[in-house]
Amino acid sequence: MNAIAPTLLAGLLLNTSATWAATFTVDTGSDASLSACMDAVADDCSLRGAITAANATPDSDRIEFDIPDTDASYQASTAHWRIDVSSALPLIEQSLEIDGYTQPGSVENTLTPELGGSNAVLKIELQNVSALSIDGLSSGNNFNALIVLRGLAIHHFANQIAYFSSAPNRVEGCFLGTDISGTLAANAGNHSQNGVRLLGNGNFVIGGTSAAARNLISGLYNGIVSYQTLSNVRIEGNLIGSDISGTATIGNRSNGISFGNAQNLRIGGSDSGAGNQFVGNALGAIYLSGSGSSVFPGTRVLGNLFGTDISHSIDLGNGRNPGSPSQPQPTITLFAGNACDLQIGGDLPGEANHFAYSGAAALMVGACRNVSALRNTFAANRGLAIDLSNSSSGDGANANDPNDADEGGNRLQNTPVVVGVGAIDTNTVDVEVLVDSAPANASYPIRVDFYRGENFQAAEWLQTLSIPVAQAQLPQTVTLPLSAFDDQLLLMTATDANGNTSEFGAFGIGDVFADGFED
Ligand SMILES: [Ca+2]
Ligand SMILES: [Ca+2]
Ligand SMILES: [Ca+2]
Ligand SMILES: [Ca+2]
């Protein structure tokens, strides 16, 4: 056995004790800097003071809440505590978790996205009462500090939460931009206030796949915003632009998410609980605009619900632009000069998004390439499901051009065209389809995805056909279920091997079956 030298042992013990986390329990809603934070002493620990105390050591600390209802911050009518912030709170300089769910009476959300909404009950509200455009809770100069913020209602700040960091900071179970109940906008005026602003290369997670992590990010200008390159950010399970029920809007006045360049950004996901709900965002749910040769490499938008509630029946919309209703906007706008390299929907279970009630196009691909849109479903959108264009705004349906040499969003990939109908069986029909893209103008194999149309939109994905380069520009026969024509309209996209998905092509079956297949 090796003996440990006493001096070394003492050093180990010191090091160990230095990493023990302290817990500071906020016991007053005062905005004064009360930082003694002794558990046995009342009224000696404010949020401002607790952050100051936590910053004083490099420990990974925790701030909890236990404010009595005799405190001046107590709001009897709503049984919660309101902290009026009259000047900027200290920046968070060391690893810290602030957990509003520790205040007695608060309850974490238990509703999954499939059930819709949130039943979280928050008890701690932070509101900016200064005349200044200050941030709410913000990281500081120590980019390695890991910050977790949970269970707080925050409003009236410039950015309710601002992360400038290299650490995987999280925001979980917060209400940003609404009142404590999550049913009303906190901001009556037209302030340019954002929910979360992100900067730096931290692998931030806003929300998460657990129900308790779901945030409500509504009634703001932008819900989540960044102007610089992000890496590996995940935005999961949030309600963005809705109220707490998920069945009504407290819209954001600009976008739900507005980002510049981002790599491996994940909005939603195929995991249970990962999908976000975006509704009521005036200028659209997601606006991604960047520059460079590859703008959003590895980025995926998966499993989200846009413009409606879980029943898919309520018109909640995105991109309606109520301030200028003659200029409605897409639900998702992508604008960049080169390759976007982005996947919206996909082949794996849970990857498809549902787009409904968009003010304009559901998905607008402006100028950039390699944006695949696979297996998503669409209903009641006022513009095209997919609109490719060569500028920052949509231009409606593009005609196919011979050989597909035109360029623009997703290379203005030509849509599939039905050139013939073959054998009709009891349950199936053979359809001949052609994609007129010369191998010089698209990457093969090209896949064609077939959807059952309903009210002229792609309601249900049916199947995929792959066209190898040897069969380029030649008719291909595919056997489809007759149910593809339940609403008499077959819808199709073509996607080349680089992920350039076309607009939707349509084939009306009414003429073909005019002899009695209709009921
Ligand atoms: Ca105390
Ligand atoms: Ca177009
Ligand atoms: Ca074309
Ligand atoms: Ca083209």
Shape: elongated
Total beta-strand segments: 40
Using only CA atoms, what is the Rg? 26 Å
Strand content: 25-35%
The largest β sheet comes out as:
11 strands, parallel
Bound molecules: calcium ion
Distance between the termini: 88 Å
Q: Segments where pLDDT lies below 50 for 5+ residues?
A: 1-19, 514-519
Total number of helices: 2
- Class by SSE composition: mainly beta
Share of helix among residues? under 10%
* Average pLDDT level: 93
Quickly count the domains.
3
Strand order, biggest sheet? 1-2-5-8-11-14-18-22-25-28-31
Protein described:
This protein is mostly beta strands. It has 3 domains: 63 residues, no CATH class; 284 residues; 94 residues, Sandwich (Immunoglobulin-like), CATH 2.60.40. It has 2 helices and 40 strands. It has an 11-stranded parallel beta sheet, with helices on one face. The longest helix is centred in the N-terminal third of the chain and has 13 residues. The N terminus and C terminus are likely disordered.
Task: Describe the structure concisely.
The protein has 519 residues and is mainly beta. It is 4% helix and 33% strand.
Topology of helices and strands:
Elements: H1 6-18, E1 23-26, H2 47-55, E2 61-65, E3 74-75, E4 80-85, E5 96-99, E6 124-128, E7 137-138, E8 147-150, E9 153-155, E10 159-164, E11 170-172, E12 175-176, E13 194-199, E14 205-207, E15 216-217, E16 224-225, E17 230-231, E18 234-236, E19 239-240, E20 257-259, E21 262-263, E22 266-268, E23 277-278, E24 286-289, E25 299-302, E26 305-306, E27 332-335, E28 339-345, E29 354-356, E30 363-366, E31 369-374, E32 377-379, E33 386-389, E34 417-424, E35 428-434, E36 446-454, E37 457-467, E38 476-481, E39 489-495, E40 505-508
Parallel strand pairs: 1-2, 2-5, 4-6, 5-8, 6-9, 7-10, 8-11, 9-12, 10-13, 11-14, 12-15, 13-16, 14-18, 15-19, 16-20, 17-21, 18-22, 19-23, 20-24, 22-25, 23-26, 24-27, 25-28, 26-29, 27-30, 28-31, 29-32, 30-33
Antiparallel strand pairs: 3-4, 34-35, 35-38, 36-37, 36-39, 39-40
One calcium ion is lined by residues 400-401, 404, 406, 412, 414.
